[in-house]
Amino acid sequence: MSSWARPGRALRLIVAAAGAAVLVTLPQAVSSYRSFQLVYVGVYFIALIGLNMLTGHSGQISLGMGAFMAIGAYTTAIVVTKGDVRDLWTIPMAGLVAGIVGYLFGFPALRLQGVYLALATFAVAIALPSLVKRFPGLTRGGTGIALDQAKAPFGLPLSGTHWLYALTWIIGALLFGSSWLLLRGRFGRTLRAVRDSEVAAASIGIDAASYKRLAFGISAFYAGVAGSLLAIAIAYVNPDTFPASLSILLITGAVVGGLGSIVGPLLGAFFVEFVPLYAQDISNEAPTVVYGLTLVLVMIAAPNGVTGLVRRLGALGSHRLTLGPERMSEQASLKEAS
Predict the structure, then answer these.
(1) Which CA distances in Å does 10 have to 17, 68, 324?
(2) CB-CB contact of 102 with 68 (8 Å)
(3) Among 105, 107, 284, 322, which has the highest number of CB atoms less than 10 A from its own CB?
(4) Domain boundaries, given as residue ranges, for the chain
(5) What is the pLDDT of residues 120-178, one digit of tens each?
(6) Which long-range contacts link 165-170 to residues 24+ away (Cβ below 8 Å)?
(7) pLDDT tens digit string along 185-202?
């Protein structure tokens, strides 16, 4: 078993290193427009890491991640315009504010499960744009808040787009590494124990309520950081920037990428960014149809998402290699005889 585990670990390290090299060199190989699209991919990647932790590992279904992104975006916009603070320094602040709101939301959310929790979080996503408009003195209502275009700090020789790309993916890599360390350790094991059976978790002394609230807070923190980066990238925030459909889109990307998978958020982020763009070439209504068809196909062909399908195919391939041609032909003969 260990002899097969070492090559598998080495392969994962090689793939990770190759992926990092691609991300570093990609802006030089594509147009500025494509680089800006990859900034959006990075933003969705960060939000999906948080959603994956909440839904994939703690089992709490959330349709309100767009609302927490909005909280992070407005935190950045308000602090920059009213406090005269550089946008870069507001990113952790935006994550903290959204994280605190998410943690507090976890208290009433503990009374709900399954579809009721999903509806409650979706209600937040629907209500927040209207709530924002009720405080025009702070949020400028439906007009929104305009920001200055992003510029590279400290005299770095980078264009605005390349700076945004570097900033988004550096933060994304740091948050990805943090989530990987969290989920592979005691915290992750406890979350999965709570997800699988709260009764069993409580029987061994786990405070399920505390861990579920913490999962809500951490996922909201990730969403707040993503919202802050989005506000900095587009240099404008208004209630329509974060419609309820954004939350639906994010959960769709999480399912397609693979809930509970470490790599799933990256695949889901590419899906969230590029599928609507290409689907709109067919028809304005096409993205909605594509989401529905994709979800149906994923649920049928790959219930664990794309990463689950790849993992299953890899296991099948390694099983065939382990058996060898003689053993495989022997099994085929046995099947024919039966």
Answers:
(1) 11, 37, 23
(2) yes
(3) 105
(4) 1-30, 32-244
(5) 898 999 999 889 988 888 888 888 999 988 888 877 788 888 899 999 999 999 999 99
(6) 165/27, 165/35, 165/36, 165/38, 165/39, 165/42, 167/88, 167/229, 167/232, 168/39, 168/42, 168/43, 168/46, 168/229, 168/233, 169/23, 169/38, 169/42
(7) 898 899 899 888 888 888
